[in-house]
Each structure stands twice: as C-alpha cells, then as structure tokens.
C-alpha cells in the first residue's frame, strides 16, 4: 500500500512511522509513505494556509486552495480515489473500517487543524471523513497515525504471525481475554492454573469464557453484533448467573 499524508506538521510523523511495525512494514516493501507539508502548496506570499471563519466566530479555518492544489498534484498518478479527512465530525473509526481500508492499494490522508477545514474540501475531494473518537484533539496528525497504525498491521505479511490480527479484540466484536507471561507467581499473584495445565481444550474454553465475561461486563452492546455459538450461550448463561466476584474459573 502507498499512503500520502498531507499535514501542517509532517515532522511529527517521522519518529513513529520509522519505528516498530510501521517501520518494519516499510522495510518489507508492504507500505510506503510520503509526508507532504500543506504549506508548500500555498501560493500566498506569506505561505498562509488559514483564514478567519466566514460568519464570524473564534479560531481559524484551513483555506481550500493549498489543499486542492496538493491533492490534485499528489493524487494525479494514483488510481484509487480514497481520500480521508480526519475530523471529529467524521464516521467513527473501528476495526471494520480498518479492514476495509487495509485492502486499498492507495490512501491519501488529509490532517485537519484549527477550528476546521473549509467545507469545500470535504465536499469536493474527500471520500471518507473519519473520527477516532468523541473528543477534540488539536489536529488530525494523531488520528492519522492511529488510522495508519491500525491499517498497517492488517496488511498481509506485516505481522509475523498471520493469525494474530484475526484473533484481535473487535475482529469478532469481542474483547480480548487476559494474557499472562512468566513468572507464574509475581508477588503472590498467580497466573490462573488452567493456563499452566497444558490442556489446550480447557485453555481455549477458559479464554472464550474470559473474553465473553469481559465483553459482557465492559461493553455489553458489542455482544449484540456477535454470532453466538452453542458454547457461547452456555458460557454466557454461567457468566450472567454468577456474581462477579465468584467468576474466576
Ligand atoms: N481532529 C480533532 N479531533 C479529532 C478526532 N477525534 N478524530 C479525528 N480527527 C480529529
């Protein structure tokens, strides 16, 4: 996948995209990234990219011309027309959207700033307005990194263990079960015995129980999206029937 990112602060991306999984995806040739500074596309003699809001009100608005010029210059050679704008007004980002975007060969992400972006950008250039949550950040750079990170780990070949993305929380509308590593006893707190048993069937069932229990307790609305197996129903009946403090098999 190739991704072009348009931002007023392209330098904030560099340390993160060079490290960890994003860095590895690039060295494996599975992801390439180009960072563009919106200011380079301003034709204003002061390289101005923002202006006051028509109708009044506080804060500045990103002007349309530099963004139109940038998108037209960058996207000219690209076939796919998936152009993302990060904005709190967008559709909520989730694992399903990450999966859909991970299947694209090309993405262009525009990072919003200030009070907003001139609406004609969303109207004429953008295919997807995306929000990463119901809170307001100072700019779209962190949302762009969140989106890029979530997408990159879903590109086939990026994660060493191909099954680990499929096992993620949310790939199945279910929160993940608890994980433990050595030591088996840390300051008197023990790893659940079943995980040390070597009995794969019991471990699988315990993990399923824990995942269902966490989802039921923390995000019950997710269970409505889950296709429940007979075993899930049986485990959920146990979970709902047991006082929280006793649920520890
Ligand atoms: N820009 C500012 N806040 C945002 C959010 N929550 N999601 C996406 N873009 C944003």
Descriptors:
disordered C terminus; binds adenine; 2 domains; 3-stranded mixed beta sheet; alpha/beta; 249 residues; 5-stranded parallel beta sheet; Alpha/beta knot; Trp Operon Repressor, Chain A
Description:
The C terminus is likely disordered. Helix 4 crosses helix 6. This protein has two domains: 151 residues, 3-Layer(aba) Sandwich (Alpha/beta knot), CATH 3.40.1280; 78 residues, tRNA(m1g37)methyltransferase, domain 2 (Trp Operon Repressor, Chain A, Orthogonal Bundle). Helix content is 37%, strand content 18%. The strands form three sheets. Strands 2-1-6-5-8 form a five-stranded parallel beta sheet, with helices on both faces. Strands 3-4-7 form a three-stranded mixed beta sheet. A two-stranded antiparallel sheet has the order 9-10. The chain is α/β, with parallel strands linked by helices. The chain contains ten helices and ten strands. Bound molecules: adenine. The site of adenine (ADE) has 12 residues, from strand 5.
